[in-house]
Amino acid sequence: MTLRLPTTLAADSDAAAVAALTRYYGRPYLGDDAYVGAHFDSWSSTGDRVGEAGRFTADDLVAVTFLSVQVPADGGAGTCTLRQRR
Asked: How many Å apart are CA 40 and CA 58, to the nearest integer?
C-alpha cells in the first residue's frame, strides 16, 4: 500500500495550504464562498469555554439537528428553562 501525502503537506511551500484554508474559510472571512463547516469552527464543541462547561447551549441544540435529530419545540424551551433555574 502506497501512502501519498496531499500536495498541501508534501510541498516545500506554504502556498498550497494557504490556498486551501482561504478556500475553506472564504474571502472575506466566512463570506458567501466559505464552506459550511467553516461557520461552525468557532463553536465550543468540547464544552470547555467559560460559562458553557456542563451546560446545554443553543449551539448544542443546533448541532444535534445537523445529525438529523429532531428536537421538539418544547424540548428546546425546556432546556432553556432548566438552564435558567441553575
From this structure: 13
